[in-house]
Amino acid sequence: MGAAHWVYLSGIVLIIAVMIARKNVVIPAIAATFLTAWTFTGSFVKGLESIFNASLTSASELFNIFLIIALVTALLGALRALGADRRMVEPFRLVMRSGHSAFWVLAFVTYAISLFFWPTPAVPLMGAILLPAAIAAGLPPIAAALAIAVAGQGMALSSDYVIQVAPGLSAKAANVGTDAVADKAMVLSLITGGVALFLGYLMTRSQYREPDALLLERWEAGETEAAAPVARRSLIPGLPLRRRVLQPAPAAATAAEGDGSVAVLDAGPGPGSGQGAGAGSVTVPAPRNGDGPASGTRNGGLGRSGGEPGDAMAAAALKSLNGGDLPGDDCPKRSRAFAAIIPLALVGLVGYMMLGKFTDAVPEVVGGDAAALVGGVTVALLLAAAVARDAGNALQACADHIVDGLVFAVRAMGVVIPIAGFFFIGNADFAGKIMSLGDGAKAPGFLFESVTHMEGAIPDSRYVVGFGVLLIGMITGLDGSGFAGLPLTGSLAGTLGPTSGVDPALLAAIGQMGCVWSGGGVLIAWSSLLAVAGFARVPVMDLVRRSFLPVVAGLVVATVAGLIIF
Known about the structure:
globular; two-stranded antiparallel ribbon; mainly alpha; 2 strands; single chain
């Protein structure tokens, strides 16, 4: 190991420490990238160039995630303009009666889809259909994101029991049968996921709310609980959901000047979504009639009090709950049609992929191809919704929705790019490009080379070996690739298994758990976890922090259980 290896490892320790302290890690990541490249190349100029190259490389690798977030967000914007988004989630209230049931329904459906097709196409499907219904049922966005991430990127991908790419890589490196690794990985993934979901549920249940259409409205508007407490505008208790009426707006509702939206209430200090006059006022936009761009300026309006809801969106939610037309909606039939077309189209997409998986009727679609298919279907539905809303303005509306989606994706997830760039410089596949070493130069693998030096320090104790392989797997996942470390953990399992008396297939499965749960998209922000956080509209670093304790506890329990059972 050279000096650059130690600089890189010091950067990892610093970033982890800053994350634990709940501070932003962009500056430490950029500094560590610069110092690593400068130390390895010996050139100050190459170090500066590496800062840009690292961010450029990570942006190109993660752009597919940004794009799918942007397209689904654009589709939701088109559905919102039609008034179809609220109608679309109504049927799911039958199974999502509360936030508690919504949590487990989200986890089960995500796991079922991800097991067959990987989480890549599953997350957009959840974000387009079930996630809005779960929010309206009272599930906090952070809890919804936790359920989707643990069930999809964690449980389903770590076992990879159907597609078996991960077990195949682990088994080949460990020189054991793929079925032996897959069976043990399935058991370990279920234990890890079960513990993580249960702990995640217990940690978030105090934040669950009563079912309320305004929860969905405020989530779509990007408002936080602190900025707009729903308790100030709750539904009257004691009545069936579809018969409840909203309480009158308080007389202290803040008025604003202008047209196009109405002030809701004085929500106290915190950011508002409009330009209301008065500290802490929150405004919401009135429905557009298709005569302007999707992203316009939100001006204030006049609040109400007495016997009617104090804002247009609240009135829309009330009307929707009672089965009526949305105020300002001049195409209720098309709105209802698209509320049915969107779920049916996405369910049909899942059916098509299942036909490819289990029959020869259509070509099999998995991985990146599946994500591309989901993205293409999303764009087609976006175009259809825009034309149905206002054919004369469809060209401009589609462009506006796509721009809004891209802006949202970059604003929400763009901070991760320089962080991912640092970890990419530790991967031999990217290090040469980032440090401009040239085609003939051998690129270093700072991360894997450092881990290889650690394997000799692992004693031959059964439990020490098991947890050592787990820890190495988690470290190799720090580059954001859940499968890149599998050859390393598999080879370690084949080497350490016979000397420690542990089944090499079990050790390979344990290492697979560490690699995938870490880098596959649960414990690392610069991975496909970006998509989950983007659709749930929560900060990705907050999601990592919420996931850390449940997932690590699950991995510990699963490792101990595996060493006892097998």
